[in-house]
From TrEMBL, chains A, B, C, D, E, F, G, H, I, J:
This is RbsD/FucU family protein. It catalyses: alpha-L-fucose = beta-L-fucose; beta-D-ribopyranose = beta-D-ribofuranose. Gene3D superfamilies: RbsD-like domain. The keyword Isomerase applies. InterPro entries: RbsD-like_sf (IPR023750), RbsD/FucU_mutarotase (IPR050443), RbsD_FucU (IPR007721). Signal peptide: none annotated. Keywords: Isomerase.
Amino acid sequence: MLKNIDPLLSPDLLMVLRSMGHGDDIAIVDANFPAAAMARRLVRLDGLAATDVTNAILSVMPLDDFVPEAAWRMEVVGDPQAEQPIFDEFRAILARHEGSNFRLASLERFAFYEQAKAAYAIVSTGERRLYGNIILKKGVVRD
Amino acid sequence: MLKNIDPLLSPDLLMVLRSMGHGDDIAIVDANFPAAAMARRLVRLDGLAATDVTNAILSVMPLDDFVPEAAWRMEVVGDPQAEQPIFDEFRAILARHEGSNFRLASLERFAFYEQAKAAYAIVSTGERRLYGNIILKKGVVRD
Amino acid sequence: MLKNIDPLLSPDLLMVLRSMGHGDDIAIVDANFPAAAMARRLVRLDGLAATDVTNAILSVMPLDDFVPEAAWRMEVVGDPQAEQPIFDEFRAILARHEGSNFRLASLERFAFYEQAKAAYAIVSTGERRLYGNIILKKGVVRD
Amino acid sequence: MLKNIDPLLSPDLLMVLRSMGHGDDIAIVDANFPAAAMARRLVRLDGLAATDVTNAILSVMPLDDFVPEAAWRMEVVGDPQAEQPIFDEFRAILARHEGSNFRLASLERFAFYEQAKAAYAIVSTGERRLYGNIILKKGVVRD
Amino acid sequence: MLKNIDPLLSPDLLMVLRSMGHGDDIAIVDANFPAAAMARRLVRLDGLAATDVTNAILSVMPLDDFVPEAAWRMEVVGDPQAEQPIFDEFRAILARHEGSNFRLASLERFAFYEQAKAAYAIVSTGERRLYGNIILKKGVVRD
Amino acid sequence: MLKNIDPLLSPDLLMVLRSMGHGDDIAIVDANFPAAAMARRLVRLDGLAATDVTNAILSVMPLDDFVPEAAWRMEVVGDPQAEQPIFDEFRAILARHEGSNFRLASLERFAFYEQAKAAYAIVSTGERRLYGNIILKKGVVRD
Amino acid sequence: MLKNIDPLLSPDLLMVLRSMGHGDDIAIVDANFPAAAMARRLVRLDGLAATDVTNAILSVMPLDDFVPEAAWRMEVVGDPQAEQPIFDEFRAILARHEGSNFRLASLERFAFYEQAKAAYAIVSTGERRLYGNIILKKGVVRD
Amino acid sequence: MLKNIDPLLSPDLLMVLRSMGHGDDIAIVDANFPAAAMARRLVRLDGLAATDVTNAILSVMPLDDFVPEAAWRMEVVGDPQAEQPIFDEFRAILARHEGSNFRLASLERFAFYEQAKAAYAIVSTGERRLYGNIILKKGVVRD
Amino acid sequence: MLKNIDPLLSPDLLMVLRSMGHGDDIAIVDANFPAAAMARRLVRLDGLAATDVTNAILSVMPLDDFVPEAAWRMEVVGDPQAEQPIFDEFRAILARHEGSNFRLASLERFAFYEQAKAAYAIVSTGERRLYGNIILKKGVVRD
Amino acid sequence: MLKNIDPLLSPDLLMVLRSMGHGDDIAIVDANFPAAAMARRLVRLDGLAATDVTNAILSVMPLDDFVPEAAWRMEVVGDPQAEQPIFDEFRAILARHEGSNFRLASLERFAFYEQAKAAYAIVSTGERRLYGNIILKKGVVRD
């Protein structure tokens, strides 16, 4: 553990986040997501909620403000407008770290898979709630 | 995740537990323990309580009943008889899986370090409570 | 060995199954199948029957119920409708774990090869019976 | 699989046996033996009986006839003269391959551990019977 | 060395042959063949004749009888019908192990190269005779 | 780069610091120190001052308060009481992060070498000033 | 450190520069650049200015004079003619090492990314200024 | 060093040459050639002349006489007919080992690069003369 | 294969011999010798006679003439003065390469094992004759 | 190659020299020295004179002036006071780089071996002259 750094950020995850640059994506996925099959770099955080991991990541990683969208959830299969309880939790975490206007975009299931496969890393959590997956695009750290 | 197996048992931890044999030790240690420096094999479970990890491990791993002691906690430095709140939690978990007579032995701090270094593996958890460390000796699986 | 876990699930196989996610395939193949040439990840269980290994895998891995088919056998070359004694054994194992309506689909030999090559892992068994091969698609573990 | 070679001899085990020379030991151990912790080279044959594996090994590997003893079982703890059912099975397999006078020697438990640690390889089987462990010393292959 | 197994089958070659399955190819090539540049898996047997190595391989590996051709030699460049002394030796070895009707097919030089590149393994021998190259396709081992 | 984390903490250094536990040492050494020859784990930060690196490390890593000394400088060879300008800089950095009473202990040159060799990691900086070396012992992170 | 060689040239960077040949590119990029995701070979120099690193590299590496352009900066997004303060610093460093007529060419942002991905190596610096990225093409060392 | 073998043939180079077969290429290149970027297998012989290395290689490696050309130099850029002093040295070495009629063919610069990239190995020498590059195609070793 | 170099010297063996220096030992051992268990570096030449391999090695490797003994055979167990047919073959090979006065020394079996374990490499041959083992100490290559 | 750096300093050698610190040794040895058997890190420069390599190394590496001796040659066996022609060449190179008073110390042959084994690296050259070996101790680089 370290001072002033969320303890959910494990040694591997810290190194991954610190190595990422402007425009690199990271996916935080639930316990049923095929993360090992898809990830370029895999970080496991078994037993933790995707929302807690997302909150820990956003405490040190800014999102990209050069592009119209920098955070994506997966759309409910067959009902792209449907809500899930975890979506509002993701929005509240984004608002806390990036401002209340930050928009959580959405991707159809297989488009989400393709973007996750191309991401710099996938963090496999213990999230049990449905649609507990999010992709974040890293922004610029300014002085 | 798998059916009928505690989801806190990560892929690495499951492989370690399945590979261990009669008499091999595993140490479950808190977030401040120097696990990376001491471990022959290191499994990380950041963010989880040592008690939850111990409970998950004992759901699949029996303790050794060929020897008088098969579970050890660390003694409070300077006060070997002192209790800590987590000790009773460890005892309750042992009772649930191994019977109410199972004894939680103790080791002086540096003796605990030596036994952890010789263990088959160390599981580094996110436990924040004081003295949140335990060593378990695997027993025989009978039909 | 571990308590409550079929001992045919070796350390490597347990880790593979635990790492797989929703929609990942695993192939269990007979002793003559070119598994080493085709597998992304190879698990060997020499000397065991494919049916026993399939039964052990299904004791911890649910099959996918989001798609119309989640288990495939290879069709007899030149006679796609033909039965083999092992097919009914596979069906009985599927019924035991997934319900009596679960359908064992079939694939032409070379289509079976292509799907096995793309699978997350291939388990090479000691099965000596003809057409002793099956592919299983992992489902979602629900609470 | 290969013609004229017992199919229980997996690719790894065949390579190990073929690489061993005069005087090298191999241990075949039961499912509870701490093989992963002790082995210089580990071969897993989960699910198989130690007797079947021993029989397969002796079909290709001669025992050492330069020394008075070339096969050892573990003694029953606390009762070195005690018999176990599997001992006679081991003796029958030795007689079949090496002649009816071949002697199965014995080692006290911790002496057995020390010799297993020094062996060229340990084969971890699925043997569930008590004291299902044997060490074999390779002999010379003559024309 | 092992009992009942041709000593020309080295540890690596035994493991390769045991790992191959139905339909996998193995090429046995002469001392001038560009084996290191082409092989997926390379086994070296410097100093040995390709015919002796072929004989040793066929003592444990059956050829494929599901397809019209399962053994190929290279055609003489510029004279596809021409014979070489080693061709009859290859035919005699095939007859000894697979029956007198087994046919040695032929491939034009560059077609032979392409099939060798795709083979499971190439065995580089010390064969000095011209056109001392053969590709064998593994068959099914039946009870 | 990350928010709220000193950018001098490189990906490797962050992972090292996050992996260290209570009582593990880290050495920050100057540009002439034989770091590559001595380090168990080597982190390079060429071009940076040892004082800046020490300051960055102490922004996230607490020092050990269970022991009488947790920070050591090297003594001037032949004059153990002598001061060097960089010593007061080290003391000021320690005071900023650990309180004004925190003591900078000292070690004779070869004792310093021995402790650096046993440290969890050595950070090789571009420090050009004489005696620009310090060893820090990690403390406990409390809530 | 070495005599007569800029100490900012770390062991890894020296080896990379010495291994490069005529026509190979090296990119020196700022602290927000996605270097780890794009680099064939990655050299980290955290905490240093891109201009200081460029100056150190040009003290030992000549630029290519066989081609019309051998140094490129990134164009300001949306304003390809715009200047940034660091551009003149790059020009001054080029003039010092390659002569006052040496031209700093420019590339649109995504063209710069493509050339950086194809470069022999990327050096990730701690540069915080906007557009602090440059690509250099190695020339011939003449007697 | 070995008896009867040119000492310029280093351990790595000897192994590469011995592993090459009929039709494999090897490129010997000058000190400015981008060898590390292009080589499938790289052998370094810093400080040596390309002509000395070529001479040493041809003392053990025959050139291919099945094809019209088996040795290539790079053409002078912009003047394909131009001579360079080193060309006659290459011709003399070829004549010494392969006979006075052996022809040194030529390739345009980028065609030379493509053939070098596809070669079995590139030997990077310390050659300082212009156009000090040659590609050799290995022939058959006859009794 | 290469010109002027015995084709029994495989790529690995050539590299080993070329890397050895004055005073390094190499052991050439028979097919029953426990070479894999003892060797620091293992070279396999299955199927070849130890005498042929020894002859090939001595065609390029001089023996040490700074010490009284530079070639050793193993003594017959229990009869140190006894001769074996292969001993005279070894002596003839030594005489051919090193002169007729070169002495073949002997070592008791376990002393031979100790020297083989310390050797730079062990070459495991297919030698079937009794006591077909020899250790050679490399000498200086003079102009 | 690089500007202002001796081209005999290969990529590996440059990295080794740059990584060494105050007090680390490097041995430059002749073509018969058992370098591969003794070296912690081995750098090969086949074909070059030890004197040229020593000169190149001293162009960038200062010698240690904290200790009475920082350069050692090997003593002639049996005649410790004897001179060899290469000794004066070594002295001249030392004088050119370190001043005319710099002393070339000597070590008995086996003491030289022990110090070479403990050195940070050994550089194996093509030196053919007798006693062409030297050990150098790196000094401090001052501003």
